[in-house]
Design goal:
Elements lengths: L1 H20 L1 E4 L2 E4 L1 H23 L4 H16 L8
């Protein structure tokens, strides 16, 4: 029983050391410890969701990109407008 307790204590000590040394810096965003781990895991989950979404909707992607380009051109307003 003492050997198992020592093993569990060593595992938790290693996790605590790793958690304390984990830092993440992205531009003005800085996180250390548990918040940094949560931000990193969230990023991985979001990237996986985006990849899954793109894989499912690959047939509609050209139409979506064409519509996005048209929207961007409309919002940019480079076209000359007629004066009333």
């Amino acid at each position: 029983m003492a050997k198992r307790a020592a093993t569990v204590k060593a595992v938790f000590k290693g996790i605590a050391r790793t958690q304390a040394s984990f830092t993440l810096e992205l531009g003005p965003l800085r996180a250390t410890g548990v918040p940094a781990i949560l931000v990193a895991v969230t990023g991985v989950v979001v990237a996986g969701g985006i990849a899954s979404m793109l894989a499912k909707g690959v047939a509609r992607l050209p139409e979506t990109l064409r519509e996005a380009r048209t929207l961007a051109e409309t919002l940019r307003g480079d076209r000359t407008r007629l004066n009333p």
